[in-house]
Structures are given as C-alpha cells and as structure tokens.
Design brief:
This protein is mainly α and 496 residues long. It contains 22 helices and 2 strands. A hairpin with a 2-residue loop joins strand 1 and strand 2. Helix 11 packs parallel to helix 15. About 4% of the residues have low confidence.
Length: 496
C-alpha cells in the first residue's frame, strides 16, 4: 500500500514581499484606531470604546500574520512597489470599516467601505446626514483616516518600511507625480522624518488657532486633521458654515498651506524667499487668486458685495482647488456659470508634494508648456523646441508621463461618468448628467461635495449600492495618481 503524501506549496517570493508590506500597513492602521478608542473613553462612551479597541486588536492581528507570519523575502522591485501601494490602500479600507460596523454607526459593508475609502483617500464624501450624532470615538476615527491618508501613510511608507527591509524608493516612486520623489536628504528615511515634523507641527498650529476661536478642543483637533490632509470631514452637518468668520479665515489660510508642497515648506523655514522663487508655487497662487476673483465677480453680480461674499469666494476657490471640500456656502444654488467653474476647479489640485488630490498644478503647467511647444513646432517644423517649466528643462520622458497621466485620468472620468449614470438608472432613480459628471469629478479629484442631487447640502446615502462601490474605487484611483491601480490589472505586473 503506497503512502499518500500531501505537499503544501509555499507562497512565492512576490506574494511574500507583498504580504510583508501590506501586513505592516494594516497593523499600523489597527494601531491608529486606538486614539479613537481613547476619545470614546474621555467622553465616557464605554461601549463604543470597547468595540473600537476590539476592531483595533483584530486589525493588528491580521496585519501581524501577513507581516510576520507570511511575508519577507527580499526587497521590493519597482513593479512590486506599485502593486504594494495599490493593494495596501484597498486593505486599509477593508479593515477600516470595522469601527463603523462593530459600533453600529454604519449598518452595512457597502456604506462602511464608502465612508472608509472616502476617509483614507481624503475625499470627504459622506453618507452621514448629521456627523454630530455619531459617537466621539467614531468622529475621531473619521478624522484620523483622513489625516493618515493625507500625508501620514506616505510618510509611514518612507520612514517605517525601509527599516523593515522594504524598498522605500519603489514605494515613493509609486506615489510621486514627478520624475523622481522629492528628497530633502540623500536618505528617504530622513526625508520622511522631516516631512512628518512639518505635517505634525502645522496641524498642531492650526488646532491651537481654531481652539482660540469658537471651536471646542475636540472640534479644533478634528478640523485640523481634516484641513491639513485636505480631507473635508467635519463634525457638524453644515460643514464650516456654522462657525465664526475668524475660524473660516484660519481654515482658508491652512487650506492654502496644505495645498502647497511640504518639501517647499521645509525649505522655506530656512530660506524665506523660497516660496515665490518656486515656479509651481507662483502658478498655484495665481490659479487660486484667479478662481477667487471669478467666483467673487459672479456672486457680486447676483447679490452685491459684502465681507461674507468675499470670504465665501476665497473659501470655495481654495476648497475646490486644494480638494479639501469644506463648504461655507451651498454652491449648488449658484448660477450655472459658477457651477461650471466649480466643476473645472475640481480637476486642478494643489502642488505636487502636497496633500491635495486632483491633477496637480505641476502637471497642468507641463501640459501647457508642452502644448505650446507643439504648436510652435507645427509652424516651424525644423525648429528645436524644449519644454521648460520655469527655468528648468522638463525631460521628454517626464512630458510623456504627464501626457499619459492626463489621458488616463480623463478616460477614467468619462468612463466613470457613463457607468455612474448607467448604474443609477438601472438600480435606482435616473441620475441627471450634472450629478453624474460632478460626482465622478469629485471622487477622482478627492474633493467630496458634488452638484445636483449630491450637492454641498446633500449626502451620498441615497446613491445606489453599485454607485457607491464605483465611487469608492474612483476615490482610490484618484488618490493613488491612477497608475498604481491601473497597473494592478496589467498581466505583465504579475509575471515573474
């Protein structure tokens, strides 16, 4: 009688490396739930604190299994870096639903995943009609997901994962909109630490200034988290509209700061003239100013000039361009010309290296310069025209990468608009074109509020369940700069 042997095939090296990275990130996400549990304890929400703590334990346990139990087999390759970034964000979103589901704050997986994806991607689209009705611990978790998703996860990837033997350069390249990740020092770990210090210190400064106004300490902390991440989750149903003009001006200032490159902030701390010498910063400031003037002109024509009109114009321009998504006015009721402008601003984004979403000012500048050079080339076929951004020459591979990004971004926008409208008419009430276009642009740009049935005074709860999954996917696509997610569907990525 022959002996039957069973062989268990060990996971391949690529699977183990990806498991190592994703497990470490999931474990870190679980640990980050503990401050939310602590907030519940402070406000004597004993049951909520217990459930959030249990969610943290489960998340850390699964993360450690992937990290220590399965993973580890050398450093990541470049293509594995892209795969790790994309898969890690989906993993964080899936485990991030646990505090919502276990506390009963959100009652089903679809809605919980939408809210979590909106948090980690700093989109700010919400299914919650009145955030003030949620437990304090859940409000803290919503804000923390945005703060971590803004800059914290990137910094964590660069500072912690290289210590674990994982290729930080590959992870950084997967997140970077430029030719190479911006280094402040020769070592990525030191760069990450410095950016983390800037991010944390500016968040603390905003919290103190908001607390000096009419916000409580809890409100100030939450809004500092969601402003610096350009996220837009709030603690009140009317976003920022119910707070004083002083608070609104503070948030205006810090939205502008959050939309600026954090590497530039660090350099400017030592050399104050760095800001205006930077070409991208000047373009960013001009776009913000021009948008604010156009909005002010439209509001002035319809209702006259006032201090509130001026503040609403600047606030809305910055909230859209930096993709923060806070509101002080319901632009869903503005005239059609201003609404078209609002949708256009959803595509802009802040500077490369900021926490903002969107296409980014750097890419728009390069696209404009490259298009101008191409027009001149058609007039002078034998001429040699170099694409420059400011005084710097932009290499041809970078121009091609920017053009490819723009093409894929617009393709995702058009496809998403069609699918959202189709799913709306198939699984629920027919969706109008304004709602479909603005909701898709808002999700891809990581903004939050849209127009039509999903305007600033509305929420996404009435959206069909396939529509929620579609927008959740588009949020992650937009947050990760398109390529890491699209590459997950490439056969060549998974070949040895």
């Amino acid at each position: 009688m022959s002996e039957t042997r069973f062989f268990v095939r060990r996971p391949g090296p690529m699977f183990r490396r990806l498991s190592y990275v994703i497990g470490a990130v999931v474990a870190a996400a679980g640990i980050s739930m503990l401050p939310a549990a602590a907030a519940s304890l402070v406000y004597q929400e004993w049951e909520t604190a217990g459930w959030i703590t249990l969610a943290a334990v489960i998340t850390v346990l699964f993360g450690v299994i992937g990290w220590k139990g399965v993973g580890r087999s050398g450093d990541l390759t470049t293509k594995e870096g892209f795969a790790a970034v994309g898969l890690a964000w989906f993993a964080m979103a899936f485990f991030g639903v646990l505090p919502y589901l276990m506390t009963g704050s959100i009652d089903n997986l679809t809605n919980a995943f939408f809210e979590t994806a909106s948090g980690f991607t700093t989109t700010g689209a919400t299914l919650v009609d009145d955030p003030a009705s949620l437990p304090r611990g859940i409000l803290m978790w919503r804000s923390l997901t945005q703060w971590l998703g803004g800059m914290g996860v990137i910094i964590l990837s660069l500072a912690v994962l290289p210590l674990l033997g994982v290729g930080g350069v590959q992870l950084a390249r997967a997140e970077s909109p430029g030719p190479e990740p911006d280094r402040l020092t020769p070592r990525f770990r030191e760069t990450a630490k410095r950016l983390w210090y800037v991010y944390a210190l500016v968040t603390l400064a905003e919290m103190l200034l908001l607390w000096a106004g009419d916000m409580t300490l809890f409100q100030a902390l939450n809004h500092a988290f969601t402003t610096m991440s350009t996220g837009g989750f709030g603690t009140e149903a009317d976003s920022i509209d119910g707070f004083s003009p002083y608070v609104q001006w503070v948030i205006i200032a810090f939205m502008f700061i959050a939309g600026t490159s954090f590497s530039l902030h660090f350099r400017a701390f030592r050399h104050r003239g760095r800001y205006w010498k930077n070409t991208e910063f000047r373009l960013y400031a001009v776009i913000v100013a021009a948008a604010a003037v156009l909005i002010l002109g439209g509001l002035w024509r319809n209702g006259g000039f006032s201090a509130d009109t001026l503040r609403d114009s600047i606030f809305t321009a910055l909230a859209m361009i930096t993709t923060t998504g806070f509101t002080t006015a319901d632009f869903g009721h503005w005239n059609p010309a201003l609404q078209i402008l609002i949708v256009g601003l959803m595509f802009v984004g802040g500077m490369a290296g900021s926490t903002a979403g969107g296409i980014k000012v750097y890419r728009l500048g390069v696209l404009t310069r490259a298009s101008t050079a191409d027009l001149r080339r058609r007039i002078h076929p034998r001429g040699v025209f170099i694409t420059r951004f400011g005084a710097d020459r932009v290499p041809d591979p970078v121009v091609e990468s920017v053009q490819s990004y723009f093409l894929f971004f617009m393709f995702m926008f058009m496809t998403g608009t069609f699918l959202l409208g189709f799913l709306g008419s198939t699984f629920g009430p027919e969706m109008d074109i304004v709602t479909a276009v603005s909701a898709t642009a808002s999700a891809l740009g990581n903004i939050g509020p849209a127009l039509g049935d999903l305007g600033p005074s509305e929420h996404y709860l009435g959206l069909t369940w396939p529509g929620k999954w579609l927008l959740s996917f588009l949020m992650i696509v937009g947050r990760l700069e398109v390529f890491p997610i699209l590459l997950l569907f490439s056969r060549s990525l998974w070949r040895r």
